[in-house]
């Protein structure tokens, strides 16, 4: 199924599994496993090949060995960089904002796919409007409270109506395993663009390639819309 539907997979990203083992990600996944409550997730996280299906077709991914859990009591999202009004939001403040629901396909470059998945939260465009992007701001850099993962979008991509700072997935609060309490969801792109455990959004002058993009992933991770 994958080759025809995902022509981009014939490129550099295919090498990830090899690279992951070089980075010792198998050990990292093992270290993370005790934090996972669900048996399937635990099994999937300890599978260095990433081939085991997780619940609902998702697979657990983290480039960090262990990720602290954040709740409404200690979660913060910081928005800064080239903005007029830098701000830090709590989870309650994000929940109190107008919520946008986006239904899109989830698709990893590894070939697994979860079609028609609803994500809801605050539209990224809305957050950018509140912060006031300065004229020299052209891109965004996303950081995560795992302390490792980063992502990027151009400002034009970020302002699309199908890009959301998600609090819910499938109409339930995002679990820790799925990147909660807050993750990005970039519906028109491969799932690596959807940073889990989102903690920072910084407006930059130009795109700074994210974690996987440093290893050759396309910074413009568009899904094949014709498929
Ligand atoms: N913080 C963080 N976000 C991340 C990743 C990660 O390792 N760390 N992996 C990315 C990749 S490659 C995919 S496919 C999805 C996996 O999300 P899931 O674990 O909820 O299935 O998260 C993306 N966002
Ligand atoms: Mo992925």
From TrEMBL:
Top-level taxon of the source organism: Bacteria
Matches recorded under InterPro entries: OxRdtase_Mopterin-bd_dom (IPR000572), OxRdtase_Mopterin-bd_sf (IPR036374), TAT_signal (IPR006311)
Residue ranges of domain Oxidoreductase molybdopterin-binding in the record: 65-212
Protein name: DMSO/TMAO reductase YedYZ molybdopterin-dependent catalytic subunit
């Amino acid at each position: 199924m994958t080759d025809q539907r995902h022509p981009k997979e014939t490129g550099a990203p295919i090498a990830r599994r090899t690279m992951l083992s070089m980075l010792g990600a198998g050990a990292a996944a093992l270290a993370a496993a005790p934090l996972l409550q669900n048996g399937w997730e635990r099994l999937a996280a300890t599978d260095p090949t990433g081939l085991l299906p997780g619940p609902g077709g998702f697979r657990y991914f983290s480039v960090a060995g262990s990720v602290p859990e954040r709740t409404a009591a200690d979660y913060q999202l910081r928005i800064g960089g080239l903005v007029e009004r830098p701000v830090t939001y709590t989870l309650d403040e994000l929940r109190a904002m107008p919520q946008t629901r986006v239904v899109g396909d989830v698709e990893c470059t590894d070939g697994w796919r979860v079609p028609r998945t609803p994500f809801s939260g605050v539209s990224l465009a809305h957050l950018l409007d509140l912060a006031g992007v300065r004229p020299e701001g052209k891109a965004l850099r996303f950081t995560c409270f795992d302390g490792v993962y980063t992502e990027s979008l151009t400002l034009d991509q970020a302002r699309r109506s199908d890009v959301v700072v998600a609090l819910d997935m499938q109409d339930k609060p995002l679990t820790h395993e799925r990147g909660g309490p807050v993750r990005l969801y970039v519906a028109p792109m491969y799932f690596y663009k959807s940073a889990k455990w989102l903690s920072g959004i910084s407006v930059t002058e130009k795109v700074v390639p994210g974690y996987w993009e440093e290893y050759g992933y396309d910074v413009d991770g568009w899904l094949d819309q014709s498929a």
